[in-house]
Amino acid sequence: MSAAGGRRPRARHVQTSFHRRGNTIMTERIAIIGGGKIGEALLAGLIRSGKPIKDLVVVEALTERAAELAGDYGVRVTQDVRDAAESAQVVFLAVKPDAVETVLRELARAEDHGETERITVSLVAGIPTQRYEALLPAGAPVVRVMPNTPMLVNEAMSAVSAGRYADTEQIDLTVRLMESVGRVMVVPETQMDAVTAISGSGPAYFFLLVEALTDAGVGLGLTRVQALELASQTLKGAGQLLADSGVSPVDLRAAVTSPAGTTAAALAEFERYGIRHATNEAARAAADAGRQAARRVDVEGSRPGGALVPERSDEPR
Ligand SMILES: NC(=O)C1=CN([C@@H]2O[C@H](COP(=O)(O)OP(=O)(O)OC[C@H]3O[C@@H](n4cnc5c(N)ncnc54)[C@H](OP(=O)(O)O)[C@@H]3O)[C@@H](O)[C@H]2O)C=CC1
Ligand SMILES: O=C(O)[C@@H]1CCC=N1
C-alpha cells in the first residue's frame, strides 16, 4: 500500500472540463468523504455555485445525518468510501485528522474507473500531503486545501498547496472548484498551518467577537435580539467595506475613531486588555494544534494494525 516505490505511471489525461471565460462548465465527478460541518459547507457551496457537476456523492456513516444530507441537498449519500471514490475524479477528504488513515486505506483499494486520474483533495488540518502519498498507491496526486465555513455562502477563503505528484492541470482543477465557493490563494505547503490559524479557524474568532459584543450590548440595556442584529450587521458591513474599499484596516479604523470620542475610549480598553497579544497567542496555538495533529497521526499510523479511529457511534456530535 505504501508509495515508497517511486512514481506510478500517470494515467492518460482526457479533458473532461470545458472552461469559458466567466462561464465555467464543470463536468467533474466529485466525492466528499465526511458529511460533517466542512463537508456540508463544501457540498452546499458547490451546489449553490450553480456550476453543473456531473456527479456529486457524499460518504457519511451516521444514518440520520446521511438522510438529512440526502434530503436537504438531493445528493447520493453512501457509507462506502471505495464505491464513492471509484466513480469520482476528485475525492475531497473532510474527515477529522484521526480518521484520515482509515479512509486512505479504503481509498487506496479503490479501482480507477474514470477516464482521468483520481485526485485526492484533503481539507484536513495539519496532515501533510506526504502522509497521504505514503498511504495511497505510488504517485497518486494529492492536493491540500484549507477552506473555511463561509463556503456555505460562497464566500470561502481557501488556500491550496500541491503535493509532490499533482500536476498543473490537477492543481488548476482544484483551484477552479474552490473558486466556485469563494476566493483562493495558492501557497507552499509549509505555510498551511499558518493559513489554518488565520483563515481556517478565523471565522470562529469573529463569531466569538460577535458573541461578546452581543453580551456587552445586553449589559448596556439592549435586548439580545437587538444586540445580535447590531453586532452581526456591523461585522458584515465592516467586512464588506474592507473588501470593497481597498483601504487598509488601519485607515478604516482611524476613520471610525473620532478624537476623544467613543471609539477611542473602547479601543484603549481593547489595547489595555491585550487584544493584539491574545490574538497572536491564539493564532500560534492554532498552528501548533495543526502540527500536533500531524504528529499524532504519524505516531498512530506507524503502529502496525493500530486502531486509527475511535469507535464510531450514533451519539450526537
Ligand atoms: N469545521 C471547519 O471550519 C473546518 C474544518 N476543516 C477540516 O475538516 C475536517 C472535518 O472537520 P469538521 O467538518 O469540522 O468535523 P465534523 O466532526 O463535523 O465532521 C467529520 C466527518 O468525518 C466523518 N468521518 C469520521 N470518520 C470517518 C470514516 N472512517 N469514514 C468516513 N467518514 C468519517 C464523520 O462521520 P460521522 O458522522 O459518521 O462521524 C463526519 O461526517 C477536519 O479534518 C478539519 O481539520 C478544515 C477547515 C475548516
Ligand atoms: O478547528 C479545527 O481543527 C478545524 C480546522 C480549521 C477550522 N476548523
In short:
With 317 residues, this protein is α/β, with parallel strands linked by helices. Helices cover 48% and strands 14% of the residues. The strands form 2 sheets. Strands 5-4-3-6-7-8-9-10 form an 8-stranded mixed sheet, sandwiched between helices. It has a two-stranded antiparallel ribbon with strand order 1-2.
Provide a descriptive summary of the structure in words.
48% of the residues lie in helices and 14% in strands. It has helices at 37-48, 63-73, 81-86, 100-108, 129-135, 168-179, 192-200, 202-219, 224-245, 249-256, 262-272, 275-301, and strands at residues 18-20, 23-25, 29-33, 55-59, 76-78, 90-93, 119-122, 142-146, 156-162, 182-186. An 8-stranded mixed β-sheet has the order 5-4-3-6-7-8-9-10, sandwiched between helices. The protein has a two-stranded antiparallel ribbon with strand order 1-2. Strand 1 (18-20) and strand 2 (23-25) form a beta hairpin. The protein is elongated. Residues 1-25 and 302-317 have low confidence and may be disordered. The structure holds NADPH dihydro-nicotinamide-adenine-dinucleotide phosphate (NDP) and (2S)-3,4-dihydro-2H-pyrrole-2-carboxylic acid. (2S)-3,4-dihydro-2H-pyrrole-2-carboxylic acid binds at residues 125, 196, 200-201. The site of NADPH dihydro-nicotinamide-adenine-dinucleotide phosphate has 31 residues, from helix 1 and helix 4.
